[in-house]
Write a structure and sequence with these properties.
alpha+beta; Trna Endonuclease, Chain: A, domain 1; six-stranded mixed β-sheet; three-stranded antiparallel β-sheet; 3 helices; 18% helix; globular
Length: 120
C-alpha cells in the first residue's frame, strides 16, 4: 500500500491513508485515498498472496465506488499493478465467503496500471 502511495506521489498525485475511525473506509475496505489530476479516488490495494500460482483476495465490500488495485512484486525492485474491475473479478474470480480469490494466472484479463500521472 505504501508503495502504491509513493507511485501516486511520484506521478504528481496526493495520496492519504484513512483515519482509524473513518466509517466509509471501514465499510468499503478502502485502505488508500488519492487525488489524481483533480479527481478523488478510493482504493483497496491487494497484494498477491503466494508466489507461483498466487492470488489476490478482494473483499466484496470494496465494490461500491472503490478501485481495486492488485500488486505483484517482481525481481529487481519492480512491481506490476493491475486495476481489478468488478465485472472481471466476478467472471474469473472464485467467491469465498465475503471475498473473491483472483488467481495471478487470470491477470491477463485486467488492465495494467502504467502510471498514476493520469486519471484512471
Amino acid at each position: 500500500m505504501n508503495l502504491v502511495a509513493g507511485f501516486i506521489q511520484i506521478g504528481g498525485g496526493h495520496p492519504s491513508f484513512p483515519e482509524e475511525n473513518d466509517g466509509v473506509a471501514q465499510a468499503n475496505k478502502v485502505n488508500l485515498y488519492a487525488i489524481i489530476r483533480g479527481a478523488h479516488y478510493r482504493f483497496h490495494v491487494a497484494a498477491i498472496i503466494g508466489e507461483r500460482g498466487g492470488y489476490f483476495v478482494v473483499p466484496t465490500e470494496a465494490r461500491s465506488d472503490v478501485i481495486v488495485l492488485g500488486v505483484v512484486p517482481q525481481p529487481n525492485f519492480q512491481v506490476v499493478i493491475y486495476e481489478l474491475d468488478w465485472e472481471t473479478i466476478e467472471k474469473v474470480g472464485t467467491r469465498k465467503g465475503d471475498s473473491y480469490e483472483v488467481r495471478l494466472a487470470d491477470t491477463h484479463a485486467f488492465k495494467e496500471v502504467k502510471t498514476f500521472s493520469e486519471r484512471l
